[in-house]
Amino acid sequence: MRKNYLWMAVIASMLSFTACNDDASSIVNGENPDEVVMDDGTTFELAISNTGIGTRAARPLGSSAAANTVNKVQLKFYMWDDINKWVAAPDTFKIVQLDGATYDATTKQNIIDFTEKAQSEGVPGTTDRIEEKHTIKMKGMAPKTKYRIVAYGYNGEIFPYAGTAGITEDETEKGLFTTATDHKLSGYQLEEVFAGYRDVTTASVYDKKLKVYKFTGAPEIEITRQVAGILAYFKIPTTIESQVVKTVKVIANAKSDGFKFPNTLVTDNAFNGVTTTENEDVLMEFDMSTAASNWNNGNPEGDYYKTGGNETTNYEPTTNKIALANGYTAPQGLKLKADAFFGARYILPYSKHITTQNTKTLKVVMYNAKNEPLKTLKVTTNNYASPATQYNYDIRCNNFYSIGKKMSTGNTTGNKPDPENPDPNPDKPTDPDAPIDLGATDQIVVEINDAWDVLHNMGVEEE
Asked: Which residues are 244's β-sheet partners?
């Protein structure tokens, strides 16, 4: 599986704590030598890219592009004690200033707020993003001591997966958390959470010039998505072997109840899901009786279903269900190819590899009005070389599973939508949308995207 670690990919798809650059000014504390301010080893900066709208709902996915709606980042601090184990950092180790202003860590519980902004997608191959940074001043660091800084970002006033039971902290691996067992989120309610950690050590020598104990290295934490994403973008035939197609379902071979975060603290960090059961889970369903404009009371005309729209149609979040999966709320400005059907959502990652013989991780099934399957299509990925893993892969955090290609929410050309900032490579524009034709027996869609950590190039094949 190819992973993209280019810096531009990182800033387009992740939140990060990054050290200030060489031009950043130091904050010197001459009164309290136990205060640590971090600049190139003594100053750290909290940064978030592609900040989105701060609503209390899951960000509606309209493409595989990078974006997020994180407006809160929670910090947790730990220290390595004398008996070789992680413990909570003492109360004297706390945030005392945020961007030069007094910060009450007790009241605000080490939560950093971010400004609500208009939604911005990171278009593959570009550096466009909204970025906000905060400088954080700490107090109470001891010399020659290792600290663990854990951060997780979310949207809204409370952590979305807390439920009434609250998140659980792992006793054997400090800084590792698990979503509540009663969070009750499912389907299109699922939200993205970002998380990460970094272990850093303070120097043993007191810096007389800055009058601080410095970190031995500038702290940098990458905070990545802890859930997965999926989209379905289809051309749907009206009949299969003379039987009318009424519904189309995208089905996974398993379902998880929750996830652990940050996944990089999980022993096998590829599998941060919790309680994955091998029962089929319908991820998305398209009902032609409400989504198609030519359903005609079960007597559709033509070879393919129609939507009555085209590339200029806005599928705004209204009660209109034309072209959209059941229950899916379109983001503002969604545009689709003419007579194409679309849905997208988040998925909770698996806790293990599903090894059931001949299992297919994802499949697309078309049914008649009696809910009898007419045609089953295996969803393949070319991220793996062997025939077995092309069908039996895993649902992993920060992976995006794109069944059909949609690179941008607001257009169908794949190009940068802002006319004031044209496509960076006009001679080689990004490939346009490519909905999968479910009437074809074999079709693979090649897709390139550097927005998510891993984007699977999905296709369908008839069983």
From this structure: 239
Q: What is the Cα–Cα distance from 414 to 411, expressed in whole angstroms?
A: 7
How far is Cα 217 from Cα 200, in angstroms, rounded to an integer?
7
Which position has the higher pLDDT, 456 or 250? 250
How far apart (Å, rounded) are the C-alpha atoms in residues 252 and 249?
10
Structure tokens at 448: 């390139």
pTM over 0.90: no
**Could you give the 3-state DSSP secondary structure of residue 89?**
coil
> Could you give the 3-state DSSP secondary structure of residue 311?
coil
Give 345's strand partners. 230
Under 8 Å CB-to-CB from 291, ≥6 apart: which residues?
A: 305, 307, 321, 322, 323, 324, 325, 326, 341
Q: How many Cα atoms within 13 Å fall on the side-chain side of residue 313? A: 17
What is the Cα–Cα distance from 251 to 18, expressed in whole angstroms? 39
Angle at 43 between CA 42 and CA 47, to 5 degrees: 150
Tens digits of residue pLDDT in 116-143: 544 445 443 334 444 566 777 777 778 8
Per-residue pLDDT tens digits for 2-23: 333 222 233 233 344 433 222 2
Kindly provide the b/e burial profile for residues 297-325, where b requires at least 16 CB atoms within 10 angstroms of the residue's own CB. Answer: eeebeeebbbbebeeeeebeeeeebbbbb
Q: What residue ranges in 86-127 does DSSP mark as E strands? A: 86-88, 94-98, 101-102, 111-113
CB 405 within 8 A of CB 63: no
